[in-house]
Specification:
The complex is a heterodimer of chains A (349) and B (271). With 349 residues, chain A is mainly α. Chain A has a single domain (33-343), classed as ABC transporter involved in vitamin B12 uptake, BtuC (Orthogonal Bundle), CATH 1.10.3470. Chain A contains 14 helices and two strands. With 271 residues, chain B is α/β, with parallel strands linked by helices. In chain B, 32% of the residues lie in helices and 27% in strands. Chain B has helices spanning 44-51, 74-80, 96-102, 116-128, 144-157, 174-191, 202-208, 226-229, 232-239, and strands spanning 6-14, 19-28, 33-37, 59-64, 67-68, 81-84, 162-166, 194-198, 211-216, 219-224, 241-247, 254-261. A six-stranded mixed beta sheet of chain B has the order 6-7-8-3-9-10, sandwiched between helices. In chain B, strands 2-1-4-5 form a four-stranded antiparallel beta sheet. Chain B has a two-stranded antiparallel ribbon with strand order 11-12. In chain B, a hairpin with a 6-residue loop joins strand 11 and strand 12. In chain B, helix 3 packs parallel to helix 5. The model of chain B has no long low-confidence stretch (mean pLDDT 90). The chains are: A mainly alpha (349), B alpha/beta (271). At the A-B interface, strand 2, helix 9 and helix 10 of A face helix 2, strand 6, helix 3 and helix 4 of B.
Chain lengths: 349, 271
């Protein structure tokens, strides 16, 4: 438990750095890069890693460059970004509610996105380019606002947030089922692909919104990390330590909802990533600091989605398995292992 | 500084229905230990929470060194007034040292995350509560007494002049209760801190408190040194209990020995 920490002080700056955590984040950065290069290298046409790097640098041959820069790299980057966003969002939801069984898809935020996306596919005939992702994003925000609004009673307490969220998720699920019964078969098939989560055909136009969301929101979440540390001691203590409890909670949840919305609007409702990434991160990082846990959870999510998409592309090639199916297949057994452990130790997470 | 560091003026606080604290004036004396006592539901915890700015008053207000506490920046209040709620819970796996370090939050900022002052305050708090050897242990693995000492250490690391505690001895065995009360007594006697706590046990309150505040129906029934205000009539009025009050053979403070339950008023108090 006792982490190796060093203290850095210079004039008015001071910080305490957990060396184990720095090493872990360094390792994860290398793993993320390796997964990215592997994703780009492997496929119907295999490209040697060195040629991948050459193509990235603009020095490869034309055919390689097209496959790398136009087909595989944007798709791998969408996987990376969506995974990171879901990992961070899941960690925020679990840490804010102090409930390790919570994730944005369990409290209805994913459901809101799904209901909106599926409605556009079925009732608006796909609604033109970009309509489905926009609808998903809007659906996530509406669900997030409803969740917060209904759960509010002189503040939003973790337990009530979870209960309201489960109700909201059930409502969205019912809505999705209804919409699917109304659809024609080809619309329903497309809706199902979205519901499962797929990265097929993703390009640069999906990369940019993810990149912007991560660049803005990830640092914002990290900046609130120390307040979240204090918030986890309970509302009364956090308030008496000078934390603006409701403001911090609203800020964190809004950021998590936005990250979820952007991720699912790019990749569809990829299951289990937001739920499982923080659990893996807790095992790897063994830190009580949210500023440590949250980036690790983001990296875990990124690696998980990239590897799941790679597996989905390669395992039964030329047939592709949607990434959401692979993440479910990978994560479900992990969830069971987790429950077994939790049963033995007496507490999860 | 002289005068009361924390004062309530016409303070009325409530949740949904009627006022729980109903228009109350109170002065907390500086560098003394004040104990708030009273029957269940008399508003003691509500008063403490309002003094700590955890509840906003319906009428009246709380003054911290003469200034309205509701108008001060929350971090400034947190550097001057600490509050330990009843039975706080820590996240799973949080170690004692990391918990205590979180008490430094009001002294820290984005660029000042772990100053020499922070480190010294944490070490001092661990030493004062005899929790230094537990520093790497997770809170959830500690015994009740150790856990309470760790939480008090967190509040001490906050280094506030005022410390408010809600029933800090509940669920502790007698030896640990005495440990905690001695620790708080030392803070007042040796370091000149001002401590306010809600206590269940009237005899412990009489032993340790410089000022006793007896609450009754959301009002202050009596306030003053225990020896001046505690007698059989006081116990009957505040707790609805027939009792003899004798001199504590150890400390000379009032000692309350219940004789029989008052049939006239069991839980009602006479304000």
């Amino acid at each position: 438990m006792s982490a190796r920490r060093v203290t850095l002080r210079r004039r008015r700056l001071s910080a305490r750095v957990d060396l184990g955590l720095v090493a872990l984040l360094g390792t994860l950065a290398v793993v993320v890069l390796a997964a990215l290069v592997t994703s780009v290298a492997l496929g119907d046409v295999a490209i040697a890693p060195l040629d991948v790097v050459a193509s990235l640098a603009g020095a490869g041959d034309a055919a390689d460059e097209f496959i790398v820069l136009e087909l595989r790299l944007p798709r791998a980057l969408v996987a990376l970004g969506a995974g990171a966003a879901l990992g961070i969002a899941g960690a925020v939801f679990q840490q804010v509610t102090r409930n390790p069984l919570v994730a944005p898809d369990i409290v209805g935020v994913g459901g809101g996105a799904a209901l909106a996306a599926v409605s556009v596919i079925v009732f608006a005939g796909f609604g033109g380019a970009g309509a489905v992702p926009l609808a998903a994003l809007a659906g996530a925000f509406v669900a997030g606002a409803l969740l917060y609004g209904i759960a509010w009673r002189r503040g939003v307490h973790g337990q009530r947030l979870v209960l309201v969220g489960i109700g909201l998720a059930a409502f969205c699920q019912a809505g999705v089922s209804y919409v699917l019964t109304e659809g024609r078969i080809f619309e329903v098939a497309a809706a199902y692909v979205w519901l499962v989560g797929s990265l097929n055909g993703r390009g640069w136009e999906q990369v940019w919104p993810l990149a912007v969301a991560l660049v803005v929101l990830a640092p914002a979440v990290l900046a609130l990390g120390r307040r979240l540390d204090v918030l986890q001691l309970g509302d009364d203590l956090a308030r008496s330590l000078g934390v603006g409890v409701e403001r911090v909670r609203l800020g964190l949840l809004a950021a998590a909802v936005a990250l979820t919305g952007v991720a699912v609007s790019a990749a569809g409702a990829v299951a289990f990533v937001a739920f499982v990434s923080p659990h893996i991160a807790r095992r790897l990082a063994r830190t009580s600091s949210n500023q440590g846990l949250i980036p690790v959870a983001g990296a875990c999510g990124a690696v998980l989605v990239m590897l799941a998409d790679l597996a989905g592309r390669l395992l039964f090639a030329p047939t592709e398995i949607p990434v959401g199916i692979v993440t479910s297949v990978l994560a479900a057994p992990y969830f069971l292992v987790l429950l077994r452990r939790a049963g033995r130790v007496g507490a999860a997470g | 500084m002289t005068g009361s560091p924390l004062r309530a003026e016409g303070l009325a606080v409530g949740y949904d229905g009627a006022d729980v604290v109903a228009g109350l004036d109170l002065e907390i004396p500086r560098a003394k230990l004040t104990a708030i006592v009273g029957a269940n539901g008399c508003g003691k915890s509500t008063l403490l929470r309002a003094l700590a700015r955890l509840l906003s008053p319906r009428r009246g207000g709380v003054l911290l060194d003469g200034r309205a506490i509701s108008e001060l920046p929350s971090k400034e209040v947190a550097r001057r007034l600490g509050m330990l709620p009843q039975q706080p819970t820590a996240p799973d796996g949080l170690t004692v040292e990391d918990l205590v370090a979180r008490g430094r939050f009001p002294h820290q900022g984005l660029f000042r995350q772990w100053s020499a002052d922070d480190e010294a305050a944490v070490e001092e708090a661990l030493a004062a509560t005899a929790t230094a050897e537990l520093r790497d242990r997770p809170i959830d693995e500690l015994s009740g007494g150790q856990r309470q000492r760790a939480w008090i250490a967190m509040a001490l690391a906050q280094q506030t002049e005022l410390l408010l505690l809600d029933e800090p001895t509940t669920f502790l065995d007698l030896a640990h209760q005495v440990d905690v009360l001695d620790l708080l007594d030392g803070l007042v006697a040796e370091r000149g801190r001002t401590v306010v706590m809600v206590l269940h046990d009237i005899n412990q309150a009489c032993r340790y408190a410089d000022q006793l505040v007896a609450m009754c129906g959301g009002r202050v029934h009596a306030a003053g040194p225990p020896g001046d205000i505690v007698d059989a009539a006081f116990i009957r009025d505040v707790f609805g209990l027939e009792a003899r009050v004798v001199e504590d053979p150890v400390t000379g403070t009032p000692l309350c020995l219940p004789t029989a339950q008052s049939r006239r008023s069991r839980t009602r108090c006479i304000s």
